[in-house]
Amino acid sequence: MPRIHLQHLSIDEIRIILEELERAMAAHDTWIKDWHRTLICRLPIKEGYLSRYTHRRCGFGEWYYAQTHTGLGDHPDFMAIEKTHKKMHDQARCLARKAHQGKSISNHDYLAFVEQEYTLSQELLALKESFHEVLSMFDHLTGVYNRQAMFPILSQEHARVLRTGQPCSIAIVDLDHFKRINDTYGHQIGDRVLQSTARYFADNLRPYDWFCRYGGEEFLVCLPNTPVDTAQTILDRFRSGLAESPITCDDAILVNITVSVGVAEMSADLSLKETIARADSAMYAAKRAGRNRLCTWENTGNCKTP
So which residues are the catalytic ones? Predict the structure, then answer.
């Protein structure tokens, strides 16, 4: 998993950070080209090249030191850049001072600058790649985590259950009659229904819970430190709340959303795959019982009715 903590960032925040980072990197490239052109063509040395605060006043530095994004300021790749960036500017300032004074620049000093600039460019690319890696873990339609992102998290929670004995519950949430919604209103409305459902759960879950689009119209919820009876209460409240919150789509189309939910508790005696299979079986039991209800694996014969 990437070193950026997923719960600290939304897909929109990551996109904004990437856009800003790319602009800052472009500003850095422009500064480097201008600096090289000044030295090679023996142009007048700009006052900014001689300032000890150039690292803060260049386009990249202005972006770097103005950062307030959660999850960025404490990222190790981001923090490492400050030292490299300042050192590069310190070396550039020394070379600019020599040129300004009409002194020759040694091959050794110039190569030291080039090496530092190369190090900085690699660190910037590593930071950019980190955010692209995190971005790939989101479902781009709903903005919640995708299935690939969820498995490392579930594995960690399963390991914690084995290590501590603390409870953890998993739920499979499936939209009822989703094909009918697509066939009746079209796929654009179907997409809106998926987005609204995802937003409802994401907005109402606890900060330490996990939620992902598991596939198609299915979502998976992971509730750490939560026994199955508590998970049942929490998720059934979500189920009923969603059923009471129809969404208005294009042309004032009112669409009612209901879900069938299956819940199972992690156990030291079960693999993660077996726990997910139990939650899935419980969800299908809820479907068979009439939909818009919740079933637990432990009590599939008596699904909670709306």
Answer: 217
